[in-house]
Amino acid sequence: MPTDTPLTFGALGVADDLCARLTRDARTEPFPIQAAAIPPALAGKDVCGRAPTGSGKTLGFGLPIVQRVARAHPNRPRALILAPTRELAAQIETELRPLLAIRKRHSASFYGGVGFGPQLKALRRGVDVAVGCPGRVADLVRRGDLQLADVDIVVIDEADRMADMGFLPEVRRLLDLVRPKRQTLLFSATLDGDVDVLVRRYQRKPRRHSVTRADDGAKVEHLFWRAPRERRVELTAGLIKHHDRALVFCRTRHGADRLARQLGAAGIDTAAIHGSRTQRQREQALAAFKGGRIQALVATDVAARGIHVDAVPCVVHFDPAGDHKDYAHRSGRTGRAGAAGTVVTLVADEHRAAVRSLQRAAGLPERVDEPRPSRPAKRRRRRS
What we know:
Elements: H1 16-24, H2 32-42, E1 47-50, H3 57-68, E2 79-82, H4 86-102, E3 107-110, H5 117-125, E4 129-132, H6 134-143, E5 153-156, H7 159-164, H8 168-175, E6 183-188, H9 193-202, E7 207-210, H10 216-219, E8 220-226, H11 232-243, E9 246-249, H12 253-265, E10 270-273, H13 279-290, E11 296-299, E12 314-317, H14 324-331, E13 341-347, H15 352-362
Parallel strand pairs: 1-6, 1-7, 2-4, 2-5, 3-4, 5-6, 8-13, 9-11, 9-12, 10-11, 12-13
Helix pairs in contact: 2-3, 3-4, 14-15
């Protein structure tokens, strides 16, 4: 019997109807975190997964939920998925919706920045799987519009980001409201500090799985370029033109808006996305970037965990990340699921010491090189 036979979702216990849909979407071989997490999750066990962003965690917890979730009564979901950002909550719900439809189950996303009306209507109609940010979910609970006593499957996604954003007290209050004998699935890039407290308090003998993308070093190139402040816009524009499209990170909202204007003046179609933009503006900017109607999306760290765009060839740290965790979250927008990518950090002289510390903590070579000359890529035809 051949030993190199590809692993399939069916071999992990995923039902035939769901496998058929995955095959239709050209998803036939599970990623490592999916192969590790799906079998115990299908068996009803708690799972604690450590995996980098972009490694396929959504299907790792999503397929077991789709296969196991019971039908809900109005305002009383049976599964709850908590995510730190609006974009990530919307992304998860969008990915699970067609799979849930196969089983005649319903989902909805719940986050701030939009009115309560559509969310209340969805709850009254019946939501089997609720995906939301802790703040809005807690608001709905306090209003009496959402009851969690029937929830028997909970997912905490990007738990370390929850901790960084100060959401864990609210997460704990929500977990205290769901069924005591629930199944709890927790996924995070790191499992130290407050996240470990969450594991010990709310999980029962979890199956622990730690997955890293061993081929990242070969497929994602991490570059640190010496960049005087007056050259950063020029270098960023050159990188975008060379790669055809890029996601660019700035430290502040004002800085993101300013850079978007500067790149626009350089002839690059650009949009900015950050916490001061309305939810509609953020969705429109992200849709334009996904659809290829703009070349560059300039974002603050609010978007580092919430943007899911396939085949982003380049990430530019216009302002260096604050620490190695932020660096990993930002950089994880390229090289997703083992694809190739380039990450470039622009380093002004005053940032050299901080960048060396970041490189050391991230396990990267402590070096800053001179910028490479960039030649424009052959432009692809834009989608209308």
